[in-house]
Design goal:
Two copies of one chain form a homodimer.
Chain A (H helix, E strand, L loop, with lengths): L14 E2 L9 H7 L9 H18 L5 E5 L3 H12 L5 E6 L2 H12 L3 E6 L8 H9 L5 E5 L1 E2 L4 E2 L3 H9 L3 E5 L18 E3 L13 E5 L1 H8 L12 H8 L12 H17 L1 H21 L15 E5 L6 H12 L1 E2 L1 E2 L8 E5 L7 H21 L1 H6 L7
Helix pairs in contact in A: 1-9, 2-9, 5-6, 9-10, 10-12, 11-12
């Protein structure tokens, strides 16, 4: 019996214009292939220190507790929640998309009581509803998503932060899709815990979840009655490895991913974060104009568009997956479909990090135009039906 | 005020002969720099399927539930435990080193009761003590470390597996340091859950924790009364992404690390796992002979030496850190010190994956010989004192 042969990897060259991961900056890719050292090597400790400094720059924070969790953005989410929550704690969870739902699920698994404040997917959470929930509960924290990757809505945070602190609760913010691409001021906005992911606007490979926590949050965490249920995600022990000079071993950090993250953050630092934010805003606006000129409708409330990802309605005369397959197979471009209740109904087009540029705006607009045209030509009955609709 | 400049990364070229991570095979490094695709890309799904097949080969198992957890080996440990344990469950934890202690800590954080069976560090756990613990408890599982990275002891598992199953408990095995370097038969030995890490004998970067679980274990997990406390590490939902054909999105896998793991496993498969085991055994034996010829004492019970890492006593006339610094600075070789109660008392020398070869045996023996000689010459009072001791 002959043995199966496993061939060399040969992945296609795709332009990743979906909801993340994004393409990796060539400089980050180069950093990934540098010689590995041990997780307690003096050289790696310098790398760790500089990564932390650069993360503070990216988060616009002076928080001592700032480091990358060794896992995906969802590990960052779970870490933020499980460090704060003890059995029976009430947490207000703002839900206007897929990742708000995930927060609520994790709150419950941490033994917390999730008090849900809901808005329709694609709309922001209104401050007054958060206040109402705060007034009617004994909430320890409010958890909210800054840039809902599932809908492309960008949540204003300052007013919600103010009211959260009036009620002496902590503000936990999901910045998975916003960090490094969308205006975010952790200290100025009074965010207590903020987590993100490496594979979105930082143009790094997936596998790290930057997180930062205020002293106020750390005081709550340090004064817990019980241990954090997750050993792996326990910030008070991870900080002994990442932030204290005597470096108490916790777990083996994904060393090459840390090299990559440092390089991704160095790119951000060199460009200047404000310039980066403007670039993302400029390109997403050009994309939206182009989509609308071609007769496509933006799904999300246009007053609160996230500069990193935009959601458009799938026209009712095409099939979501047909178009995405065509984009992938004919143009080597990946865009994302909808998650959860929006499956089949929207496309999510991302311009994140290195991918946020004018060339990519043109590429995706042309590819979409051609794909939609061909598609409608194929279904000529539908085409007849839609001739009075401007498609491109 | 001038802005701090962050320089390009320029890590030293180290030979990693410690307790892990090990150096990365050049083919694995190449795989890491291949084009990234999305976590739901059809190409990535093929990569996932083949990675799972190759992991089954490495674990010597037919378990359907076989996949890499997106985190370090400790995330694998936590996943193995938190999926099985519900509040109040009794778990027998075998402790003869640092990682046994960690298991006990995590069991308690999962709400379990840890029933500890202890042996001195560097000695194996005896079957009879496990039986005694089983007879005197209502244990749901026995957790034990196969290759204790902290001491280099290799634990025989077959008899402990038999008695564990006589008492209808599950056997959970930590194979972080053994997978791919030391004989390990998950199915034949009746291991119910086995987890490992990518950065040891698989010569991959750190950041993934391969795990496999038997149907017996999965039945226990599927029939839990309560949800697994960790959302991120919940095997029943991760499997929907990794193992089911309709691929329900769970979290964004660290795609490049999966490329790397597949390549590391492909190297294992090409060499043949039995050949790989023999190579590790042969080289560790040559290393031990050389160490003993130079007057160094093996810390670990020599009847149960792990073929991937060996612990030697730090001679009492030198300082642990001086020698390790000298090896690092003069030879660019990293070896590990002791963990926990063995800090300053032992060195751990690893020959893992690509690093298990004759050349490295010679290199570390010569480097150690020179470092110890110079060191003793410096401390000439001590040298006088030890002239009748054969050092090299």
């Amino acid at each position: 019996m002959s043995r199966k042969v496993y061939s060399e990897l040969n992945p296609p060259q795709r332009l990743l214009l979906g909801a993340g991961p994004t393409n990796i900056d060539p400089r980050v890719l180069k950093a990934l292939s540098l010689p590995i050292v041990e997780h307690l090597d003096p050289y790696f400790m310098e790398v760790m220190d500089e990564t932390v400094e650069l993360l503070r720059y990216a988060f616009k924070t002076n928080n001592r507790m700032t480091l990358p969790i060794s896992g995906s953005g969802s590990a960052g989410m779970e870490s933020a929640l499980c460090n704060v929550i003890e059995s029976g704690d009430e947490i207000i969870v703002c839900i206007n998309g897929f990742f708000g739902e995930r927060i609520s699920e994790i709150v419950q698994r941490c033994g917390g009581k999730s008090i849900e404040v809901r808005a329709p997917w694609g709309r922001i959470i209104e401050r007054d509803f958060v206040e109402e929930a705060l007034a009617n509960s004994n909430a320890k924290a409010v958890a909210i998503v800054h840039a809902e990757t599932s809908t492309g809505i960008l949540q204003p945070l300052k007013e919600i932060s103010n009211v959260t602190h009036e009620y002496d609760a902590l503000l936990i913010v999901d910045a998975v899709t916003s960090l490094g691409g969308c205006e975010l001021f952790v200290d100025e906005w009074g965010i207590d815990i903020c987590y993100s992911a490496s594979q979105k606007c930082l143009s790094c490979p997936p596998g790290l979840a930057p997180i930062t926590a205020s002293e106020r949050a750390m005081n709550v965490i340090r004064n817990r009655r019980t241990k954090v249920q997750s050993w792996y995600l326990d910030l008070s022990t991870i900080e002994k490895y990442w932030l204290e000079s005597n470096r108490v071993y916790h777990h083996t950090a994904p060393i090459l991913l840390v090299y990559a993250l440092r390089e991704g953050l160095r790119l951000l630092y060199e460009e200047g974060i404000e310039n980066r934010w403007m670039r993302h805003k400029r390109n997403i606006q050009a994309l939206i104009r182009g989509l609308e000129e071609r007769g496509l409708e933006i799904f999300t409330d246009k007053a609160h568009i996230c500069p990193a990802v935009v959601a458009v309605n799938v026209p009712n005369w095409v099939k979501d997956e047909d178009i995405r397959r065509r984009l992938r197979e004919e143009y080597n471009i990946a865009i994302s479909g909808g998650l959860g209740e929006l499956k089949g109904k929207i496309w999510r087009i991302g311009l994140m990090g290195v991918n946020s540029n004018e060339k990519n705006v043109t590429l995706i607009l042309n590819a979409l135009k051609n794909s939609l045209k061909i598609k409608t030509a194929e279904n000529n009955k539908n085409l007849q039906h839609h001739t009075n609709r401007k498609i491109y």
